[in-house]
Amino acid sequence: MTGSSLKFFNIKPKTRTLTYDISLITIMAVLAACGLIYQYLLSHYAGRVLGMMEHAIFTMIGVMIVSMGLGAFLAKTVSCAFTGFAWLEAIIAFFGGTGILVIGGMFAFSFMFPEIIGNNFSMPADLVPIGGFVQTVQQIAGIIPYIIGFIIGLFIGMEIPFIARVREHIYGEHLAHNVGTIYGADYVGAGTGAAIFIMFMLNQPPEEAAVYTAAVNLLAGLAFFFMFRKRIRWSATLLTGHALLGVMLLVLYANAANWNQSFEDALYKDKVIYSLDTKFQHITLTKRMISPEYGPVYALYLNGRTQFNSSDERIYHDMLVHPVLLASARQKNILIIGGGDGLALREVLKWNPDNVTLLELDREMVRLFSEPVMADGVQVNEPLLSLNKASFSDSRVNVIYGDAFNSVDVLIGENQRYDAIIVDLPDPSHPNLNKLYTTSYYNKLYHLLAGDGAIVIQSTSPYHAKAAFLTVGVSLKASGFKHVSRFHQNVPSFGEWGWTIATVNGLSPETRIADMSGDMPEDTWASKALILGSFHFGKDFFASEADIKPNRLGTQAMYQLHQQAWMQEQGLAEKKTAD
Q1: Which of 271, 294, 297, 317 lies 20 to 30 Å (CA to CA) from residue 410?
Q2: pLDDT in tens, 547-568
Q3: Are 408 and 430 in contact (CB under 8 A)?
Q4: What is d(CA 320, CA 116) in angstroms, rounded to the nearest whole number?
Q5: Hey, what domains does the chain have and what are their CATH numbers?
Q6: Which of 407, 417, 366 is nearest to 390 (CA)?
Q7: Using an 8 Å Cβ cutoff, are 213 and 99 in contact?
Q8: What SS3 state is found at 324?
């Protein structure tokens, strides 16, 4: 670059050149933070609407990384780095601010599309189309998140090449450490963005988080524009575009809550009456009116997956709790791992224990089921407190908040022993959950269980995920439990569901239940005869168990088996022949 070029920038003193450079590096770090937040936001939201959280997250990250690489290659086709970078940030702010709403809107439309066709052609409810063009629309909706991610990633990938060229223009020479400096700012910025997302944005509505990020993106682009406006072509048009984008973001921010409510109503069969993003999950509560005689039905979803339905949750929780307490020599000191909705706790309290310890990760989950929660001046969780009979208010209940894998170490260190342990954790649908289904974890629980006690573990579906279901029992046996049995029951909201029960010493769980002479508590759905019958499976059901290996820490076997079964159900993988 010549001296006249430096005059053009009015950069005469060396300190001014350094000031411009520091400003550029700062802008790069801020934009790297925005890019990382977009990646996390799109991954998290795609998992929610697609119902396959882990598959969506990993796929989105992969798609965006590839598209960023392509963007870096395409940057060389833009002749003016100053103009390219200024327009680039406006484009990223546009797609980043609207991307979540586009995904939500497309999914809402795809869910409503069959009903729209049915209403237009006066079709009966049982003849609403689900194939053909309708299926095509829904398949397109399924790839829209990745298309949005690809577009944003493509433009983000152009940022570093543009900044590198701009820096060399400023200094007027080739910079030996140009790439290292820019990548250093990029990495630091991305790490900062990850921290901001985890600490502040993870429990924000995704539409609002996207608007915040786009606004920062836009401001960073404006800072660059005013620094180098004399070298930017079509500057007046670009400035007008920035103003329009600012107005658009204000409109999005003002209406995000209402639009989010509309999209969630469309994504669920029933009316969404409350939703919340916590640090750990997205909670959705729905309500459906059947008839005044039976009252409303409530359903709770975590990250789009059914947690319970008030019409049949008693089946699940009776089968989770009562068999293990029947098999335990005493019912005085009970440990529940998971169960933040208090419904398993409700059933445990029917046995009149002395103490119940409940270990839960998400404080907001327990809050929703233990104290009044207001939304728009209305207590939205009153039905939930009624459903669990305000079980958390019982003085015998002690709630410990923490990670289930590590928190039990504290209980072991205190030499705690429990008459019964009830493990009500989510399915191993994420690699981080796999550790809670390993021999290492079960060995920890082994040391917490009284010698004449019993443990039960919710073990996913023996029909839809048979190999994963069997792995729980195989892993318990490898952890030292003497007698391991399985039982199952149909829960309409889930389908065929299964549990694994084990004892350390003495008789098998089903023998203990059969020999139990006392009465079960009143007001239970399950009977002793029904429980004993649930231990029976179809012919040759356990024939393949010899081929099942224990799930050990680091192998991810349980996660992989569950993921494979889920993908087969969704038609994303070839379905294996049933055993």
Answers
A1: 317
A2: 999 999 888 889 888 888 877 7
A3: no
A4: 41
A5: 13-111+143-267 (1.20.1250), 310-569 (3.40.50.150)
A6: 366
A7: no
A8: helix
Q: What is the DSSP letter of 416?
A: -
As averages over each run of 10 residues, the pLDDT of the chain (579 residues) reads 43 60 89 93 80 75 94 92 92 93 80 60 54 68 90 94 85 66 88 89 83 94 89 89 92 80 69 83 85 83 86 96 96 97 97 97 95 89 95 97 94 96 90 90 96 96 94 96 96 94 94 86 92 95 93 87 76 45
Instruction: Please report, in angstroms and rounded to a whole number, the separation of the first and last CA atoms in the chain.
Output: 73
The vertex-54 CA angle with 469 and 550, nearest 5°, equals: 30
Write out pLDDT tens, residues 236-259: 899 998 999 999 999 998 887 677
3-state secondary structure of 274: strand
Tokens 């399915």 correspond to: 427
Residue that the structure tokens 């796929």 belong to = 59
176-183: long-range pairs with CB below 8 Å, 24+: 181/25, 182/25, 182/28
Sign for the pseudo-dihedral over CA of 474, 476, 481, 486: negative
Q: What angle do CA 301, 303, 308 make, to 5 degrees?
A: 20
How many Å apart are CA 69 and CA 78, to the nearest integer? 16
Contact 224, 244 (CB under 8 A): no
Give the CA diameter of the chain.
Answer: 99
Quick check: helix, strand or coil at residue 572?
Answer: coil
Determine how many CB atoms are found less than 10 A away from the CB of residue 492. 10
Cα distances (Å, whole numbers) of residue 361 to 329, 403, 414, 552: 29, 5, 20, 22
Tokens of 61: 């990250």
Mind telling me the catalytic residues?
424
DSSP strand E in 290-441: where?
A: 296-302, 305-309, 333-338, 355-360, 374-375, 378-379, 397-401, 418-424
Strand partners, 312: none
- Number of C-beta neighbours around residue 390 at 10 A: 15
Contact 13, 6 (CB under 8 A): no
Q: Which of 433, 431, 489, 434 is nearest to 461 (CA)?
A: 489
SS3 273: strand
Helix (H) or strand (E) run with residue 450 in it: strand 449-458
Report whether 56 contacts 43 (CB < 8 A). Answer: yes
What span, in angstroms and rounded, lies between the C-alpha atoms of 501 and 101? 45
d(CA 347, CA 359): 16
Q: What confidence tens digit (pLDDT) does each residue in 256-298 have?
A: 767 766 766 666 777 888 888 787 888 889 998 876 777 899 9
- Strands 483-491 and 397-401, by their bridges, are unpaired
Rounded Cα gap, residues 120 and 134, in angstroms = 14
